[in-house]
Amino acid sequence: MYNLARSLLFKLDPEVSHELSLDMLGASSRLGLTSLYARQQTTTPVNVMGIEFPNAVGLAAGLDKNAEAFEALGALGFGFVEVGTVTPKGQSGNPKPRLFRLPEHDAIINRMGFNNKGVDHMVSRIRKHAYKGVLGVNIGKNLTTSVEDAAADYLACLEEVIPYADYITANISSPNTPGLRSLQFGESLAELISPLVEAKKRYAQENGRQVPLAVKIAPDMTDDEIKMVADTLVEQQVDAIIATNTTLSRDAVVGHKYANEAGGLSGAPVKDASTHVVSVLCDHLKGTLPVIGVGGILSGTDAVEKLQAGAKLVQIYSGFIYRGPELVQEAVTATDTYIREASLDK
């Protein structure tokens, strides 16, 4: 059924088909129809960041920016769903067109620019649903906020969403907000993350509930830069690293008609770079922080490769666009088998 739906949706403008798909999923949730396509498997729970995930496969941020369809998406069998990126104030994002499919490469280029309806809207959406799955919220800064003042935007979002999130991700690696990636390094990173960690500690003390903080990083770094980022995040006492966001590289899609479009490239072309970052992080961290692997997962084998590189969880996004719910089930089955066999070997 998904192949038929995809053939129809792919005839539409990418952003139109994206919005239509979310609208249909959201409507199915409001009408109580998720049981018609719900997929649940008996899997081995995975404990990461102090959270028990029913399985190791999550939906990455970017698909459901405004928490419009997270309940329906969760019913497809994901072990967790991450919504956002959300900013303090709603913003329209970059001019259209800003989303491009490269089906020959199982890839997508986007320069969306954190388009979203703002954190108040997101919170109102989450509060309306008694969602029983694991929900992450990905936070960022508004375009009009300077890089120097970015911490205030991240803090404002964190304080709004923390009562409703199971974990929070600080997105400092989107290539589509000018200057954002500069926040990944040195004092800029420490100054951004420190108030977020302090705020979540205060929340835990006042409410008796721990809400972990993850940080999402880019694939376009040298090994030394990856290690420096990891060291800073350990020092700042974050709870996990998500590796990776989209890439600026076009090496894998040279010659494609969209190869020169600005934005981040995701899907199959980023798989190896993402897995390399996961491997460097895990070798360097030696278990100090868990790593969540994302980038180029289009099969169960791809998902397992991230775990073999050291990741504790994985997320999919572009692969879901190309393969739909079948990929979710395949990845869940493959990762669950790997985790159980690895546990027996110990």
Provide a brief overview of the structure.
With 346 residues, this protein is α/β, with parallel strands linked by helices. It has a single domain (2-345), classed as Alpha-Beta Barrel (TIM Barrel), CATH 3.20.20. It contains eleven helices and 15 strands.
What do these coordinates show?
This protein is an alpha/beta fold. It has one domain (2-345): TIM Barrel. The chain is built from 11 helices and 15 strands. Strand 10, helix 6 and strand 11 (213-217) form a beta-alpha-beta unit. Helix 5 (150-161) runs parallel beside helix 6 (186-207) and helix 9 packs parallel to helix 11 (325-345). Belongs to the dihydroorotate dehydrogenase family. Type 2 subfamily. It comes from Marinomonas ostreistagni. Its EC number is 1.3.5.2. This is Dihydroorotate dehydrogenase (quinone).
The CATH superfamily title? Aldolase class I
Say how many strands there are.
15
Cα(first) to Cα(last) distance is 41 Å
Spatial strand order of the main sheet? 3-4-9-10-11-12-14-15
The SS-based structural class is alpha/beta
Taken from the alpha-carbon principal axes, the silhouette is globular
What fraction of residues sit in β-strands? Answer: 15-25%
| CATH fold assignment | TIM Barrel
Instruction: Specify the number of helices.
Output: 11
Helix content: 25-40%
Q: Biggest sheet, open or closed, and with what strands and sense?
A: 8 strands, parallel, barrel
Question: What's the alpha carbon Rg, rounded to whole Å?
Answer: 19 Å
The level-1 CATH class: Alpha Beta
Overall pLDDT metric: 92
In the CATH hierarchy, the architecture is: Alpha-Beta Barrel
**Ranges with pLDDT <50 over ≥5 residues?**
none
Q: What is the total number of structural domains? A: 1
Encode the helix/strand succession as letters.
Answer: HHEEEHEEEEEHEHEHEHEEHEHEHH
Binding site for substrate: 65, 110-114, 171, 176, 245-246
Family: Belongs to the dihydroorotate dehydrogenase family. Type 2 subfamily.
Function: Catalyzes the conversion of dihydroorotate to orotate with quinone as electron acceptor.
Catalytic activity: (S)-dihydroorotate + a quinone = orotate + a quinol
